[in-house]
Every structure is written in C-alpha cells, then in structure tokens.
Design brief:
alpha/beta, Rossmann fold, N-(1-d-carboxylethyl)-l-norvaline Dehydrogenase, domain 2, 2 domains, five-stranded parallel beta sheet, five-stranded mixed beta sheet, binds NADPH dihydro-nicotinamide-adenine-dinucleotide phosphate, KPR-Related, KPR_N, NADP
C-alpha cells in the first residue's frame, strides 16, 4: 500500500516514522518550512528515555502532490483541517482510504460528506508526543496505540489490507468494527482530561488532589458520558473503568496535547474538543455547565492570542 501521511507533527511524524522504519512506502505531505527540515535531517524523534532517532523520510508539498495513494492518514490539528483537506484532494482517488487521527468527532462528518463513507475510516491515536520548536518529535510518556476501522460495510479497501499496512510492529495496532464507539470513548476521556487540566492549569493528579478536585473531575466525566450516551454511544465498561481510575489518581503528571499547546501559547483545539461537546449536549438536551465554563475559558485564551 502506498501511504500518504498528512502532517509530520507529534502524531503523524511519530507513527509515520514507525511505518517507514517497518519498510512501508510512505510520503509525508508537509508545508514548505517542515519540508526543508525533513530534507536536512529527516524526522527527529526523541524517546521517553532520551534516545534520539533520525529517520530519513520522503516529503512532498501541496504544489507537487500527485495521485496513486492507497491510504491517506490525516494528522493535522483541527484548526488546520479544512486547509489540509483542500491540499490533499489530488491524492485521494476513488479507491483511496482516508484515515484521520484527529481528536474529537466533527472531522468525521466533514470527511464523509467530502469523500463518502466507503472511503473513510475512523481512527483513534493514543500517544503522548509533542512537536517541539526545533521540529523534533518528543515522546513525553509511553503510550503507542492506533485503533481504526471502516465506517461503512462496503469500504473501498479491505480492512485486512489496511490493517496489514498499519500494523508496523512497534506499537499496538487494532482493527475495530466499531470505530465510532472508539472515537466517542476517546473523546469522552480526552475532552475531560483536556478541559480539566487546561481550566485548572495543572496535570490531572494535581487537579484531583486540590480541594474539590476529584468532584470536579468526576463532574466533568459525568457530563461527557451523558452527552455520549444521549448521542447513542454510551461508554462501555473499559471506558468507565478508565474514567474511574483517572478520577482516583492524585499523583499522575498526565496532561494532554491541548494543555501542552495552551502552556506553550499555541492555538488550541477548543472548538473541536470542548465546544463541539457543549454544542452536541445542547442539541440533545444534556446540560454541560462545567464543559461550558471550560469552553469559555479556552475561547477567551484563543481570543487573547488573536
Ligand atoms: N500530540 C498528541 O499527543 C496527540 C494528538 N492527537 C490529535 O492528533 C491531531 C494532530 O495533533 P498533533 O500531531 O499533536 O499536532 P502537531 O501540531 O504536532 O502536528 C500537526 C502537523 O500538521 C501540519 N499541518 C497542518 N496543516 C497542514 C497542511 N495543510 N499540509 C501539511 N501539513 C500540515 C503542521 O505543519 P506545520 O509544522 O507546517 O505547522 C504540523 O506539523 C490533533 O487532532 C490532536 O488532538 C491525538 C492523540 C495524541
Ligand atoms: C489521550 C492523549 C492524552 C494521548 O493520546 C491525547 O489524545 C492528547 O494528548 O491529545
């Protein structure tokens, strides 16, 4: 399978490099500044144990992008999604699978509308990586997992073939029949963790050990779970156990990519990760006062940087 990874950042760069190392045929669609860095040094990965890897990669920019890809992996931030969709258009043929790894859900509707459900897979990435100012991708915690599956019963490419391409051996790769449930489970988890840590400006263990902290985290999970349930995707036992474990943890230094962006002064994915949950709650008649507060805070931050 010929693979195009769109965005060589924390997620696309990390998993894309692993695919290259496993011998897959991978190009990266990047913007000019990133292309120059990649041509100079390749993808630079700094591991959680301090080890550095330089992985030579093939980088293309939008003006030189052609057809012929079997699988397009989207790994851009939500605020870059619309532009990336335009840039990637020449690479998506009638039999090309489009697999996004963005957090949240809104991009799924946009992809189905643009390409039709048969070409779209749902994808969840679990990884703790950050794109640093020097272009290196730094692993800040051990967690490498991809979960993906077709959205329709008649996908343009056999799930087994997509799985064979993505199962690079160096991270956990799971083919699922229920990608939308996986996306909702991840959203409940990530939106809660992201909103709690961003609003409180602290890792989740510090939030939970502050006065009223566990009640706050628990209240946020309850809101997210209520929205997911009303939307028809109630979290299963594993997802609920994971939520309970997070609420109980008073020592974890875990944060999220949104917290990283906030504390670095970068744009944040507030609309996609938090605002969309509030909007869906409103449509479904589920009150989300804590998420609404977080959304106001994150929107004020975004307005302050504009
Ligand atoms: N980081 C993490 O730990 C995790 C993140 N996620 C989710 O994955 C998604 C991607 O996040 P992440 O990898 O962290 O983001 P990053 O900002 O690290 O990387 C995104 C990359 O996309 C590139 N990009 C944006 N637009 C285009 C375009 N039109 N063409 C080519 N490249 C483009 C950016 O390029 P440039 O360098 O030129 O700006 C950047 O390098 C988000 O939705 C995030 O929530 C999911 C799981 C974990
Ligand atoms: C779940 C987590 C924290 C790592 O995959 C994440 O998705 C993020 O930081 O955006």
């Amino acid at each position: 399978m010929k693979i195009l990874v769109v965005g060589a950042g924390a997620v696309g760069g990390y998993f894309g490099a692993r695919l290259v190392q496993a011998g897959r045929d991978v190009d990266f669609l990047v913007r000019p500044a990133r292309a120059e860095l990649l041509r100079d040094r390749g993808l630079v990965l700094r591991g959680v144990d301090g080890g550095v890897e330089e992985v030579p990669v093939s980088a293309v920019t939008a003006d030189g992008l052609g057809a012929g890809y079997d699988l397009v992996v989207l790994a851009v931030k939500s605020y870059g999604f619309e532009a990336a969709l335009k840039d990637v258009a020449p690479a998506v043929g009638p039999d090309t699978v489009v697999l996004p790894f963005l957090n949240g859900m809104r991009h799924i509707d946009a992809l189905v509308e643009r390409f039709g459900a048969d070409r779209v897979y749902g994808g969840v990435a679990m990884v703790m990586t950050r794109l640093e100012a020097d272009g290196a991708i730094v692993e800040v915690g051990r967690m490498g997992r991809l979960i993906y599956g077709p959205l329709s019963d008649s996908p343009v490419a056999a799930p087994a073939d997509v799985h064979a391409a993505l199962d690079a051996g160096s991270y956990s790769a799971t083919l699922t029949r229920a990608p939308l449930q996986e996306l909702w489970d991840k959203w409940v988890f990530l939106a809660t963790l992201g909103a709690c840590t961003c609003l409180m400006r602290a890792p989740i263990g510090a939030v939970n050990s502050a006065p009223g902290g566990q009640e706050f985290t628990s209240g946020m999970f309850a809101e997210a779970i209520a929205v997911a349930t009303a939307a028809g995707y109630p979290p299963g036992r594993d997802a609920r156990d994971r939520a309970d474990a997070i609420i109980a943890d008073t020592t974890a230094t875990t944060t999220t990519s949104m917290y990283w962006d906030l504390t670095q002064g970068n744009p944040v994915e507030a609309d996609q990760i938090v605002g969309d949950l509030v909007a869906r709650g409103r449509e479904l008649g589920v009150p989300t006062p804590l998420f609404s507060l977080a959304y106001t805070a994150l929107s004020a931050y975004a307005a302050g940087r504009a």
